[in-house]
Amino acid sequence: MKYLGLLETDDLYSDLLEDYKSYGTMFRHFFNSLPSRSHELQYRHYQVKQGELPQTFDECDAYLITGSKTGVYDNERWIEPLSNWIKAAHDKGAPLIGICFGHQVIAHSLGGYAQKSSKGWGVGVHMTTIEHRPAWLNDQRSHMRLIYSHQDQVEQLPPKAKRLAGSRFCNNASFFIDDRVLTFQGHPEFTAEYFVRLLERRRAAIGDEILDAGFSSLDQPTDADDIGAWILEFIQLQR
């Protein structure tokens, strides 16, 4: 049985706590509900904003860094320790998974670059084209769809990273480094209901036209379960 460390980098809004508990809990429910799940996971939660990080790199078989309202460029006291931990973990060969902010902070920490994009908000179901596949991934699809909610983007990939998927709006939507790093800008763990409840409060910042188009896109199917299966496959690679 594999252990997944969930590095939680944000707290849910108070009105979402009762139904969704935490970002780490959302990932647990997501992985545990996958129809293609063939392996059991155990979980360990780390509250990064409270200064909690793994003390050794072998506490878990892999580590997933969640999304956050914070940007990698923000002056928050927990970002530098997290970035330093990511660098050290990667140097030691610890497997890293990043989602949204996690995707950005891993890229930024390992020599890439993330920032607020001049393209504005990306919200709703977004399709990206698969460009490169890691050797371990047995999936020949050409595109993937996920729910997105972001202003920031990875503008430059880290050295040795390969773009897994991208689009004209989000060039570096997913990347990997061998069998040690796997990241996605989109949110496989988001449900349509959670997305609507989260984003409605940001209507003034996002704008009616963009947000309403994002809500309308939720009628499209996503590949969240398949991407979840990819992440499980990535975890199972680890020894």
From TrEMBL:
One of its GO terms (cellular component) is cytosol. Residues 33-193 form the Glutamine amidotransferase domain. This is Amidotransferase. The keyword Transferase applies. It holds the Pfam family GATase. Keywords: Transferase. One of its GO terms (molecular function) is transferase activity. It comes from Thalassolituus oleivorans MIL-1.
